[in-house]
Amino acid sequence: MTKNYKILVSQPKPALEHNPYSDMEKAFGVHFDFRQFVRIEGLDVIEFRQQHIRPLEYTAVLLNSRLAVDHYFRICNDLRLQVPDSMHYYCSSEAIANYLQKYIQYRKRKVFYAEHNNFEELLPTMNRRPGEKFLMVVAETHTDDIINMLASHKIKVTPAVMYRTVPAPWNKEDKFDYQMVALFTPTGAVALHDSFPELKQDDIMLAAYGQSTIAALQQYGLTPQIQAPTPQFTSITAAIRNYLEEHLS
Q1: 16-40 residue pLDDT tens
Q2: What is the value of pTM for the model shown?
Q3: Domain residue spans in the chain?
Q4: Rounded-to-integer distance, Cα 245 and Cα 241, Å
């Protein structure tokens, strides 16, 4: 391992100065760069209307990210809909609930959030409102785990696709001199392949988070040497740190 070892992380740079990446830079003399391999694209009104969903026919909306919040209000604005003050918001975390203040006057009686990022915690609140009609903002590529969980408790939720993740390939004019790339989404894997279609397994270390990301890489004949989550490593930073510890010379 040399001090010129560079690692590209396909996520935004952490907001906090002290973070797991900066800790590794100090501990191992490596350098991390941050650059997203994906970008978010909102559905336009014509695309959204093809789903035959009328947002104001619902009395509540489920939100599991700030992106979901932004695109819910964007779509309503594009449709020229005035979201009523009576709308209920069920959020997967307090941070997302607080983010709603960008668009609404925050009132606890209409904003509910899970303490541990788990919509199952909100089941008692949902069950106290049997007449509620639930809409959930989702990306074009998504899993139905939350919707299926709620359905198992006889709570029907309608998914509404409002945005998508698309590849943001590497600019050919930019220098690529990294010894490792960390990817977090299947779309990021697509962008890596689109940018470097001749990339081979031995050319670079690959770190991947999530089975869907790993599977996307495998479609291109690439199996990431560093993977998370696993029973040993719950985060990609822990897995990378372990690799650096084992290969530090």
Answers
A1: 889 999 999 999 999 999 998 888 9
A2: 0.72
A3: 1-37, 41-165
A4: 6
